[in-house]
Write a structure and sequence with these properties.
- By secondary structure, the protein is mainly beta.
- It is built from one helix and four strands, in the order ββαββ.
- It has one domain.
- It has a two-stranded antiparallel ribbon.
- The chain is extended and about 45 Å long.
């Protein structure tokens, strides 16, 4: 069976689906997104003062976002 052209995930709280996401397997981030979604991720709201700053190189220490050390 050929690989599907899209990936689709459902976001669930309790027993309720609150959101779905679909993306093509050809998307540059498809493998990273798939691994992340399948890892039972924690979702944290990014504070307004950090909007457009936090990305995949940052970390979460349990209470706040930490920028990468270069």
């Amino acid at each position: 069976m050929p690989e599907p052209q899209i990936k689709q995930f459902a976001f669930i709280v309790g027993e309720d689906v609150f959101m779905t996401i679909t993306f093509p397997t050809s998307h540059a981030g498809a493998e990273q997104w798939t691994a992340g979604f399948l890892s039972n991720p924690i979702v944290v709201q990014i504070p307004e003062e950090l909007h457009n700053q936090v990305d995949s190189e940052w970390t979460w220490n349990g209470t706040s976002f930490v920028p990468p050390a270069f």
